[in-house]
């Protein structure tokens, strides 16, 4: 296992550096590293690493969500409430609709199978979107219109909606029916996740403040470990309570970090941001290399040209959904275009659930996995590259934000 970790870090960082020199996003190098080292190419990664790959990816995602939450301002979120809420479900719904309407003719599946395929592909990847939105906030791009905050909130809630939808349509594909009550889990999951996270964040802020006031100083490194451990508990609670009530662990993590930042003294907030920024450097490599390792290129070849066409059509429908979410806002054409680009990438959710229909024995399982793999290979680099090369041209810059961030750190 140690050899595998060494390869993940060293080869992943090397490939990321090569891509950076070629003016490509670092994520492409990490994904290629995972594909190359993974079980479907050179097969040099320890099977034990692959067995816990999903958990490791969750841990990495938690770290960047904490950093994002520490950077968010609750007042900013209130001001982008409506479009952020619409982004949590409308683009995904449009993409699923595209598959239900057109996949039967293009890919030869029935309507139910098309709905399952659309649900697999509908989620945006927070692992690709979130770190870039955090960087925008740090550099002061788009913050005057609160675009990074809006994208962060929408992308985090989007996954909740898509996973509930996927569970419902898979049940229908297995011979069951969809009940409206199945979708009651969506608002319940969001509200309980936010509430649990807020309570945890309030407690941590009180604990750190009390320790500081009584001169029992807790080192910033220890605070980081405590925050990280609490975040893991929130994420685990989602599994503990899944048979009782739906709770969104990822939203809980972000809510915890937001409340902690809001109630903490500026020094504590800045130090925690700095610590989690450093942790993300290692977590990013693990996350994207392991996502790449989950990609089976054999299924990519089996998907065919029809799958590429269907993915592109789905993205076109998704674009319409994103633009509808922007109606009534003050965003100009360039800023709306950036929002469209930011909602293109797919990776983590597709890698996690793409193989579920196949494991359940659905006749369309192999085709769905093939399309999911192809979607990752097309949209993750496309969205990441698009965000990285366009934000300076499409978004307004507030240099004072960057100066404040640098001064605080």
Describe the structure.
Helices cover 78% and strands 0% of the residues. Residues 405-409 have low confidence and may be disordered. The protein is built from 20 helices and no strands. The protein has helices spanning 2-21, 26-37, 47-51, 53-71, 74-79, 81-87, 90-107, 111-121, 126-139, 147-173, 185-213, 220-240, 249-263, 266-293, 297-325, 333-342, 348-353, 356-359, 365-394, 399-408. It is mainly alpha-helical. 53% of the residues are buried. The protein is globular.
Give keywords.
409 residues; 0% strand; disordered C terminus
Q: What is the topology?
A:
Elements lengths: L1 H20 L4 H12 L9 H5 L1 H19 L2 H6 L1 H7 L2 H18 L3 H11 L4 H14 L7 H27 L11 H29 L6 H21 L8 H15 L2 H28 L3 H29 L7 H10 L5 H6 L2 H4 L5 H30 L4 H10 L1
Helix pairs in contact: 1-2, 1-14, 2-14, 4-9, 4-12, 4-13, 4-14, 6-10, 7-8, 7-15, 8-10, 8-19, 9-10, 9-19, 10-11, 11-12, 11-13, 12-13, 12-14, 15-16, 15-19, 16-19
């Amino acid at each position: 296992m140690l050899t595998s970790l060494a390869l993940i870090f060293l080869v992943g960082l090397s490939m990321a550096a090569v891509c950076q020199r070629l003016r490509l996003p670092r994520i492409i190098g990490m994904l290629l590293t995972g594909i190359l080292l993974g079980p479907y190419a050179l097969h040099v990664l320890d099977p034990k690493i692959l067995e816990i790959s999903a958990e490791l990816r969750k841990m990495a995602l938690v770290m960047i969500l904490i950093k994002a939450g520490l950077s968010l301002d609750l007042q900013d979120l209130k001001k982008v409430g409506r479009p952020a809420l619409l982004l949590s479900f409308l683009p995904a719904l449009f993409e699923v609709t595209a598959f239900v309407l057109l996949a039967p003719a293009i890919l030869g599946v029935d309507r139910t199978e098309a709905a399952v395929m659309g649900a697999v592909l509908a989620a945006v990847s927070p692992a690709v979107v979130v770190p870039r939105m955090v960087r925008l906030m740090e550099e002061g791009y788009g913050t005057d219109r609160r675009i990074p905050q809006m994208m962060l909130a929408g992308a985090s809630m989007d996954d909740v909606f898509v996973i509930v939808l996927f569970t419902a349509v898979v049940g229908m594909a297995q011979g069951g029916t969809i009940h409206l009550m199945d979708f009651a889990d969506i608002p319940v999951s969001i509200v309980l996740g936010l509430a649990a996270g807020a309570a945890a964040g309030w407690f941590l802020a009180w604990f750190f403040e009390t320790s500081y006031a009584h001169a029992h100083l807790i080192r910033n490194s220890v605070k980081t470990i405590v925050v990280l451990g609490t975040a893991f508990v929130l994420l685990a609670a989602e599994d503990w309570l899944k048979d009782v009530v739906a709770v969104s662990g990822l939203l809980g993590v972000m809510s915890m970090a937001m409340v902690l930042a809001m109630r903490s003294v500026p020094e504590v907030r800045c130090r925690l941001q700095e610590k989690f920024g450093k942790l993300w450097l290692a977590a990013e490599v693990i996350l994207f290399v392991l996502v790449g390792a989950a990609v089976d290129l054999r299924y990519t070849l089996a998907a065919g040209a029809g799958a590429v066409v269907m993915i592109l059509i789905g993205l076109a429908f998704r674009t319409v959904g994103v633009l509808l979410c922007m109606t009534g806002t003050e965003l100009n054409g360039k800023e709306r275009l950036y929002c469209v680009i930011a909602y293109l990438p797919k990776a983590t959710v597709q890698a996690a659930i793409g193989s579920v229909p196949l494991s359940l024995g659905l006749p369309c399982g192999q085709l769905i996995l093939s399309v999911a793999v192809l979607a990752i290979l097309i949209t993750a680099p496309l969205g990441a590259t698009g965000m990285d090369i366009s934000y300076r041209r499409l978004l307004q810059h507030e240099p004072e934000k960057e100066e404040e961030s640098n001064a605080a750190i």
